[in-house]
Specification:
The complex is a heterodimer. By secondary structure, chain A is mostly loops. Chain A contains no helices and no strands. Chain B is mostly helical. The chains are: A little secondary structure, B mainly alpha.
Chain lengths: 10, 216
């Protein structure tokens, strides 16, 4: 399962 | 990291080039309105997190606002051309024939299948990634049919392509320094870069080798 990453890129 | 900042700056540059040129010359020749509309949709769906006020940094927040604002302004300027130069506008619309429903529909389905969480925000975010990866297609389609590209179109697409290319070393960098691998962004980013490679192929074949085009 993929853990959710913070969307910090534009 | 340097790749990410340079990538963001060339992304910004691409929009500024487009905005400034359209503003100054009042010309929309060769620009696909459909691609520009898709970018508005991309930015609006991706940056929905602005509304949650969980802002990451001043840079991040400002850039998001600039991207949304600039993409909307581009549409406004193109619409202004409609009244100023109806013939040029009509000519552009006649050549801008790509059916965007074939992009928006599949992207919505892909977002439903590939996402990190089944929430409105995450689904919109995933949708925006898929859509960004193909949003340039109406523009490339227009270009490949006419075989002519204005200086504006060329500079604009070149800066956009550079932004995409620079994000790849950024992901490699982040993988090694932070152990971060965000698969959805990487996959759609690579897909987008592949489409830009196609542009450079068309550019080489039709524009450089073709007649009637002066290099900027």
């Amino acid at each position: 399962t993929s853990t959710q990453l913070e969307h910090d890129e534009l | 990291n340097i790749f990410r900042i340079l990538g963001d700056l060339s992304h910004l540059a691409s929009i500024v080039i487009l905005l400034r040129t359209v503003q100054k010359t009042r010309q929309v020749d060769g620009i696909s309105l459909k691609t520009q509309l898709l970018y508005v949709l991309v930015f609006c769906t991706r940056y929905l997190d602005l509304l949650t006020f969980r802002w990451k940094s001043v840079y991040n927040t400002l850039m998001k606002m600039v991207f949304i604002g600039a993409s909307v302004r581009v549409i406004q300027l193109i619409q202004e051309c409609k009244t100023r130069n109806a013939v040029a506008y009509k000519d552009m619309m006649a050549r801008d024939t790509f059916q965007i429903k074939y992009l928006v529909g599949p992207c919505a389905i892909l977002a439903l299948v590939f996402n990190y969480k089944f929430t409105v925000l995450e689904l919109c975010w995933s949708f925006s990634l898929w859509l960004e990866s193909v949003a340039i297609l109406p523009q490339l389609f227009m270009l490949s049919r006419s075989g002519k590209a204005g200086t504006l179109t060329t500079h604009y697409i070149f800066a956009l392509g550079l932004y995409r290319a620079l994000y790849i070393p950024n992901w490699i960098w982040r993988y090694y320094t932070e152990g971060r691998l965000e698969k959805l962004s990487v996959f759609t980013g690579l897909l987008q870069t592949a489409l830009y490679s196609d542009f450079f192929y068309i550019y080489y074949k039709k524009v450089i080798k073709g007649a009637g085009f002066e290099l900027p």
